[in-house]
Design brief:
globular; two-stranded antiparallel ribbon; about 15% strand; alpha/beta; 7-stranded mixed beta sheet; about 40% helix
Amino acid sequence: MVTVMSLGGSIIAPQGVDEDFLRGFRDLVRELLEEDQERRLVIVTGGGGPARAWQQAYRNLSGGGNDEEADWIGVMATRLNARLVKAMLSGYCPQDVLIDPSQAGPLRGRVLVAAGWKPGFSSDYDAVLLAEKFGANRVINLSNIEKVYTDDPRKNPEARPIDRISWEDFRAMVGEDWVPGKNLPFDPVASRYAARIGLQVICATGKNLENLKKILRGEDFIGTLIG
């Protein structure tokens, strides 16, 4: 069984590296792999704080810049985070960090770590492509939000949490276009392709490791199911 996780940069490195979270995440991965010898994990890392900080610096220094260059900066941040995650799981992860999902070969270890590929979308899209490649029926999207809301709860006190939503309704919320560095529950480009292939996505907070354990064990969890 292959489980695909999109591990948001907002929980790997919101500003600096969150070592406490990564230590707990590493221990949870070890626990789950030991209790189920058939489980394989594909972990796709986002860019987080470093991506947004470097993208903002680029825009400041270039008088606005362009989206493609900003995207490349974000891609490089995802690769830095991926190298860190691979290194901390090195005993389970013999393959190099995967940066092109179209070139994914057979899984040789228990864990494969992947990063951003190229401009035009976020690492969420890579996660969707890898789920399709390895026959996973869902992507677990872990970020700093507990559920998807009807609007930004930080700006709208009337925003309500959503337990389940169709792809049609979710895509109406997030739009069609990808903007580098924009905070969305799931990338619009990834959403379009996930809807097309009938993939489900679970959006949940990554910091709640007990909840993540429930998701991975197929138990009741706190989060939003899309699809």
